[in-house]
Specification:
alpha/beta, 8-stranded mixed β-sheet, 6-stranded parallel β-sheet, 37% helix, globular, binds 6-O-phosphono-beta-D-glucopyranose
Length: 494
């Protein structure tokens, strides 16, 4: 393991939810695992005019709440002594000169060698602005071995054009690709990182991981929650932008990529981006045939409001809260194997799962023995909840007849590895501090993802949905999504 360099994490948006619920608790967990550098500091920046003392006690409460238990006093003291606050207006170029002076001061005090990790936990409108002003104050230029890195949260762009523009703006602010860390919190999940280990640390799966043996792959990211308090953001985004273009494409690339020549960041990212480039461009006809959108209506209980009744949502909104699509990956490994993706809010169960369904045996000998229902082998990677991996296969039921039953070999993370308190941001923060970009999106991958979804967004814009809301809260989404997969004689797993 590398030891992170001495550094200061500068959090823009320090009064926000992300800082309270994820970032500071992740720092605490890293400290607990001795994974923070000794020379280290955090500078939180936000608008409220408070001082270090108030910020510290506020953060202490937030971390305590996230941990769900009293903090270790020694450990918290260690963090608190390194925790600072500055208030300012991110849109005011003058503020960045003050910031520079403050950082120089903290650098001396904590011996952090001029290494700064700027974390933009702010609304997306500021993703371009902050780096521009940082560059104006000469804070993005790396010098004398001092590194400068910028971590950007999602959503990265609103469409293909805005994503390309944002990339161009970051580069115009003097940042090169090795300084930009585009975060996707799905990559912080152990179960997502494990896909790589599962595929490339085992000998038995890779030979059958292709069109000769795989019938199809289905990926589900189902949530039971609605849009909660995020109506203003979500109504402009929708499921395709919010989940498919980033999180689901990430899962797709991990499942479908070729083995990289090494686990160095660019070797891995080269293979991932090829998967997205191999998806044929959707025509309008493809969108009509292979993509389904939905919006939730009310559910059986009074708290299950229709999407259009949610706070800060347009009562005539045509934003989709559900999307399902069938796509192809046109390369030698996957040609002809459909990948079905579906995601939605207010569905029946919370489940993120990737299921690889294998072809049936070439000759169904058991049919002659009266077995009608042949069941395929399914390998299910359960990302959350109930994290684990299972393999379904057929077994003979005891007795004098040839009766088959589907049984499961099941691996559960919890049983094998126990549960560590984790926010999912520990690895991401640690990797950003040691300069490992493997788990962060490279520019071409983000743009390739938008290239796939852009024709769908365009087609949808041209023909608004006539039937929204088209699924009841608490169900598995619109009936058309079932038809989409049933057309290929397949079924969603429920
Ligand atoms: C976020 C989306 O990126 O991911 C949310 O903006 C969604 O709409 C969330 O609820 C899901 O994350 P997780 O980790 O709960 O699956």
């Amino acid at each position: 393991m590398s030891n992170p360099d001495p550094s200061i994490i500068v959090i823009f948006g320090a009064s926000g939810d992300l800082t309270r619920r994820k970032l500071l608790p992740a720092v605490y967990n890293l400290a607990e695992s001795h994974l923070l550098p000794e020379a280290f500091a955090i500078l939180g920046i936000a608008r409220p005019p408070i001082d270090d003392t108030v910020f510290r006690s506020d953060m202490r409460k937030a971390v305590e709440q996230a941990e769900g238990e009293p903090l270790d006093p020694g450990l918290w003291r260690h963090i608190e002594e390194r925790l600072h606050y500055a208030h300012g207006d991110f849109q005011d170029p003058g503020f960045y000169e003050q910031l520079k002076a403050r950082l120089a001061d903290l650098d001396k005090r904590h011996q952090t060698a001029g290494n700064y990790l700027f974390y933009l936990a702010v609304p997306p409108e500021l993703f371009g602005t902050i780096p521009k002003y940082l560059a104006g104050a000469d804070l993005t230029r790396e010098q004398d071995h001092a590194w400068r890195r910028v971590v950007i949260e999602k959503p990265f762009g609103y469409d293909l054009e805005s994503a390309c523009k944002l990339n161009a703006n970051l580069h115009a602010a003097g940042l090169n690709e090795s300084q930009i860390y585009r975060i996707d919190h799905y990559l912080g999940k152990e179960t997502v990182q494990n896909i790589r280990a599962f595929r490339f640390a085992n000998g038995i799966f890779e030979p059958i991981w292709n069109r000769r043996y795989v019938d199809h792959v289905q990926m589900t990211v189902a949530e039971t929650v609605g849009v909660e308090q995020r109506g203003a953001y979500y109504d402009r985004a929708g499921a395709l932008r919010d989940m498919v273009q980033n999180h689901m494409f990430l899962l797709l690339t991990l499942v479908a990529m070729e083995p990289p020549i090494s686990f160095r960041a660019d070797d891995v990212r080269d293979e991932k981006v090829k998967v997205l480039h191999a998806i044929p461009k959707f025509t309008d006809a493809d969108v009509g045939r292979a993509v389904v959108r939905g919006q939730y209506g009310r559910g059986p209980t009074p708290d299950m409001r229709a999407y259009r009744e949610e706070p800060k949502v347009d009562p005539h909104s045509t934003t989709e809260t559900f999307a399902a699509l069938e796509l192809q990956i046109e390369n030698w490994r996957w040609a002809g194997v459909p990948f079905y993706l579906r995601t939605g809010k207010r569905l029946e169960r919370r489940a993120t799962e990737i299921a690889v369904q294998f072809k049936l045996p070439p000759l169904l000998l058991f049919r002659k023995a009266g077995v009608r229902d042949a069941r395929p082998n399914v390998l299910a990677l359960r990302i959350q909840p109930d994290e684990g991996i299972s393999l379904e296969f057929q077994a003979k039921e005891p007795g004098p007849f040839d009766h088959l039953g589907t049984v499961k070999m099941d691996f559960s993370y919890l049983d094998y590895f126990g549960a560590e308190p984790s926010t999912g941001y520990e690895t991401l923060l640690y990797d950003a501090m040691i300069g490992d970009q493997t788990l962060f999106h490279r520019m071409d991958m983000v743009e390739a993802g938008w290239q796939v979804v852009q024709p769908i967004l365009d087609a949808w814009r041209r023909s608004p949905p006539p039937d929204f809301p088209n699924y009841e809260s608490g169900t598995w989404g619109p009936a058309e999504a079932d038809l989409l997969i049933e057309r290929g004689d397949r079924q969603w797993r429920s």
